[in-house]
Amino acid sequence: MFRKSLFLTVMMMLLIGTLPFQSVAQPKPPNKKQLAKAQKSAKEGDEAFSKKNYRQAIEKYFEAVGIVPIYPAVYYYKGTAHYYLKEYEQAVKDLSTALAQGYRAVDVYKLRGYTYYQLKDYNAVLNDVEQGLKSEPTNAYFYLLAGDADRGLEDFRAALNSYKKASELDPKNPNTYYFIALCHNKLREYVQQGEYARKAIQTASPFKGESYDLLGQSLLAQKKYADAADAYEQALVSKPNLVDAYTNLGNLYRILNRYNDAISAVERGIKFYPNDGNLWVSLGWYNSLANNHQASVNASAQAVKLLPNEHMGWTNMCRAYYDLQQYESAVTACGNALKITPDDGETHLYIARAYNKLKKKDLAAPSYTKAIAGLVQFTKENPDEPDGHYLLGNAYYSADQFPKAIIAYQRSLELNPNFALVRFNLGTTYVIQGDKIAASRQYNALLKLDSDFAAKLNELIRRMK
User: Fold this and answer.
1) How many whole angstroms separate alpha carbon 21 and alpha carbon 214?
2) Which of 32, 91, 156, 406 is deepest in the core (most CB within 10 A)?
3) How far apart are CA 130 and CA 105, in angstroms?
4) pLDDT-derived band of residue 144, with 50, 70 and 90 as boundaries?
5) Closest by alpha carbon to 189, among 157, 228, 211, 148?
C-alpha cells in the first residue's frame, strides 16, 4: 500500500555539506599536468554538486576519471549525482567502482543499498546491509534499510524485527513507529498496530495522516467504532487524499447509524476522487439507508457508469427503485446486476420483492429461494458482517420463515447493536410471532437509536391483541 522510505532525510544529511578533498590513488601516479587537470575537473564537479547541478557535476567528474581512472571519491560523488537524477543503474555502477577502488565501504553500502531499494532489488539491499553492519553493528540506518527491503519482499515479520531494532537504537525517529504499525497491519496484529500508530502520532511523524489511518483501522478491528471514526477524521485533516479513509469513515458512520454523516464522508471523498466508482456505490447505499431514494438512484447510476462490470451499483439502484415504488425499473436494475453476478443473494431478494409487488408470485417465489441460498453462503463466508445477517433475516422474513429471520436479525445485532433498522425488523417479527415482551425490548432499544422507528414499532405493538 505504501512505497515510502525512511531515509531521504538521512541521505540529505549524509551527502550535503562540505565535500572532502578529492584524493587520488593510482598504481602509477599521473604526471603533474594530468593530476592538475583531473583535480581541476573534480573541483568543478564538486562546486556543481554543491549547487545541486548534478548533470554538470557528472560531466566534470567524467572528465576527471577519464584522465585519472582510479579516483574513488570522484566515482562516489558521480554515483551520488546519478542517484539524485534517478539514474539508479548508473549510480550502482559508479558506487561499486568507488568501493572497489577503496572508498570508505560503509558510506558506499549506505547509498548503494538505498539505490538498490529504488531498483526494487531487495536482496541486493540486504546484502549491502549485512556488509554495512559488519562495520557499524549499532547503526540504526542499516536496520531501517533492512526493514524497507524486507517489506518490499513482503516478509513483514522480518521487516518488523528490523524496524524494532532500529527503534531501540534510535528511539527518537518517529518514522520507525509508523512502519512498525504498518507491518503489524500486514500481519493482522491490529492491537499492536494501534499502539505504534499512536506512538508515531505522539512523536510527530511526517506520516501523520497515514498513522491516524492505521489507528482508525486498529480501532475498527477492535469494534471501537466512535473512536475509529474520530481517528479517520483526523487522518483526513492531515492528509485529505486518503481515499480508503473516506470509504472506511463512511462505513463507520453507517455502523453507528449516522447515515447523513456517512453520506457526507463519501461526498467529501468524491470531491477528491470523482471517478472512484466504489465511492459512488457507497453513496448510493447510504442514501438508500437514509431514505433518500432518488439520490440513491442518481448515485447508483454514476456507479454503474464507472464500474460497468460490478453488480453493486445496479443492486443499490434496484433497491432504491423498489423504495420509490417503481417496481418495473427495480426489476430491470436487478436483472442487470444478476447478469454480472447471477447468485447474489441480496439482488435476488430485491427482485423477488419487486416481483411480489407486481403480483408475479410465480417469479417471486424462486427468487426468494435463491436469495436465501445466496445470503446463507454470504454469511458463511463473511460471518462478522452484520449487513449480511440483516439481509438474510429479511429474506427469511419475506419467505415467512420467521423463526429463522429472528436468528439472523439477532446475529446482526450481536455484531452491530446500533443497527436501528434491524431492531425495527426484529421487533416487527416478534409482533407477527405474538411475542409482545420481546417486541417491547426492541422498542426500548430503538428509543435511544431512532425515534421514528421506535414510534412505528410502538404502534404495531399497541395493535397487538
Assistant:
1) 47
2) 91
3) 12
4) very high
5) 157
